[in-house]
Design a protein that fits this description.
Blueprint: H1 2-23, E1 27-35, E2 40-48, E3 51-56, E4 66-69, E5 74-77, E6 79-80, H2 94-103, E7 106-115, H3 121-135, E8 139-146, H4 149-152, H5 156-161, E9 166-170, H6 180-192, E10 196-200, H7 204-216, H8 225-228, H9 231-248, E11 252-254, H10 260-271, E12 276-280, H11 282-286, H12 309-321, E13 326-327, H13 336-339, H14 359-369, H15 375-389, E14 407-417, E15 436-446, E16 449-453, E17 456-457
Parallel strand pairs: 1-4, 1-5, 6-7, 7-8, 8-9, 9-10, 10-11, 11-12, 12-13
Antiparallel strand pairs: 1-2, 2-3, 5-14, 14-15, 15-16, 16-17
Helix pairs in contact: 9-10
Bound molecules: zinc ion (ZN).
């Protein structure tokens, strides 16, 4: 029996080896301009078995190695998006989410694994791992969403042992305030275990009070969403998030910061040397609250809502001066019909929009080409910083010998009009349809495999991996 088993195992390994050889072929990307967060330089990139083997001028490769001509193109590290929602009630799963990501130059995506009351976090991770093994094309990291801090704080060591070293908590739901003490203990336990806490900072009591006032005035349609979720709610929650980081000494990452008032609070925490990190998302950089004056307000409903031009200006300034760490999508996929459903209200609606394919092209166009941020900073906030903060650097997030060959050949001069039919998200549309955007991925490699080329996804579902991540103190 034993002999038979080991024979079968070696055959399986042999087949696996051949499979890996086929997909992660050796190749040479030549003639391009390599961009990392540190600088830009002309260099070839030699890839062997999915890993970067050499970076330099005029590299030679043995015959038979595929050569990809990158002249006139930028060679960027694959994007890392740490804020993606897939599966469940959303129409994108790991497969279509991967497709949208890869077509947009993002090679590592994430998902939130919701931990039910009293659940075992290792099992929560295992269930997602099984789906990733079937569906993913991009590589994946997971954050566990905590609703039951008393049950889950003692499991932080076990969670870290799974290799998924981040959690998320929501201050905007009614469950936070009655359990504030337990959540504080939770953040302390996370820090002790080397786990990063992500926080959605909006104050539940301010939101409830504001909604009641608007309801009393009959102003309940989604057109009032900006009024329903004022910057005050975000600012005061951000103060508490900072306080929780300071009290525990644990690292805290504020997701989707939208307003100048909340941004200033978070920036002050960083200036005091706290381990406090700031993410924003594309809608706040490219859109303002005037979108809610039009007939399709539902398309733009997100939490927090779109803000004023002055908020947007503050976010761009923070992106340029290095006080925003990450631009993540907060990708949420609903159909256009569901987003425009007229029965939605300020308190009962479908929040969020699909964004994986558009994050990098829009940020390049409105950021780099508009002269607001450098191309190195573009790489830093879309790849290097998220890879570092979530424990996958230097395998991900840079172009260096030994790093995974996650590479995006990027045409900085190609201008395209965004069209719904070009979107790989299962929603089949983009809120940016009709926009002219310059700077697009031409070829995307994930661990040395061409997974997007010529406008087509060439990677197969099930080839994406759940990545093993380091603990905070090892970063
Ligand atoms: Zn989110």
């Amino acid at each position: 029996m034993r002999r038979t088993y080991s024979l079968a195992a070696s055959v399986a390994l042999l087949l696996l080896g051949q499979h890996a050889g086929l997909t992660a072929q050796n190749l040479l990307v030549h003639g391009g301009t390599v961009v990392t967060s540190e600088g830009s330089f002309e260099a070839d990139v030699l890839v062997r078995a999915g890993v970067i083997a050499a970076v330099g001028r005029d590299l030679n490769a043995e015959s038979g190695v595929r050569r990809i001509d990158a002249s006139g193109l930028l060679v960027l590290p694959g994007g890392v998006d740490p804020h993606v929602h897939l599966g469940g009630r959303w129409v994108d799963d790991y497969r279509t989410g991967s497709m949208a990501a890869l077509a947009g130059g993002i090679t590592t995506i994430s998902n939130f694994a919701s931990a039910g009351r009293g659940s075992d976090l290792t099992e929560v991770i295992d269930r997602q791992a099984a789906l990733i093994a079937q569906q993913a094309i991009a590589d994946v990291i997971l954050h566990t969403t905590i609703n039951d801090p008393e049950a889950h704080a003692p499991q932080m060591g076990a969670l870290a042992a799974t290799g998924q070293t981040s959690i998320k908590i929501f201050m905007n739901f009614g469950g936070f305030d009655p359990n504030a003490s337990a959540f504080l203990q939770m953040i302390a336990a996370a820090g002790d275990a080397g786990v990063l806490t992500m926080i959605h900072a909006e104050d539940a009591s301010i939101l409830a009070n504001q909604a009641a006032e608007l309801e009393a005035q009959g102003r309940t349609s989604v057109a009032y969403q900006p009024e329903a979720r004022p910057a005050l709610a975000e600012e005061v929650a951000m103060m508490r998030a900072v306080a929780m980081a300071e009290q525990t000494g644990s690292p805290v990452y504020a997701v989707h910061v939208s307003s100048e008032r909340a941004l200033r609070v978070a920036q002050a925490a960083r200036a005091r040397g706290l381990p406090f990190f700031i993410e924003t998302r594309p809608i706040y950089l490219h859109l303002t609250r005037e979108r809610f004056d039009g007939p399709d307000a539902g398309l733009y409903v997100g939490q927090p809502p779109l803000r004023e031009q002055s908020d947007q200006d503050a976010l761009w300034e923070a992106l340029a001066n290095g006080t925003i760490d990450v631009v993540g999508t907060d990708h949420v996929a609903y159909s256009r019909e569901d987003k425009l459903d007229p029965s939605q209200t300020i308190t009962n609606h479908r929040a969020g929009m699909n964004h994986l394919q558009m994050l990098r092209p829009l940020l390049f166009s409105d950021g780099v080409l508009a002269g607001r941020i450098s191309v190195e900073r573009f790489v830093e906030v879309t790849a290097t910083n998220p890879a570092k903060l979530f424990g996958i650097f230097p395998e991900k997030g840079t172009i260096a010998v030994g790093s995974d060959a996650d590479l995006v050949l990027w045409d900085p001069e190609e201008t395209r009009t965004v069209r719904d039919q070009d979107m790989f998200s299962a929603t089949g549309f983009s809120i940016y349809a009709g926009w002219e955007v310059t700077g697009w991925p031409v070829v995307t490699l994930r661990r040395g495999e061409v997974v997007f080329e010529g406008g087509e996804i060439t990677g197969q579902a099930g080839t994406g991996r759940l990545l093993e991540r380091s603990r905070w103190e090892e970063r």
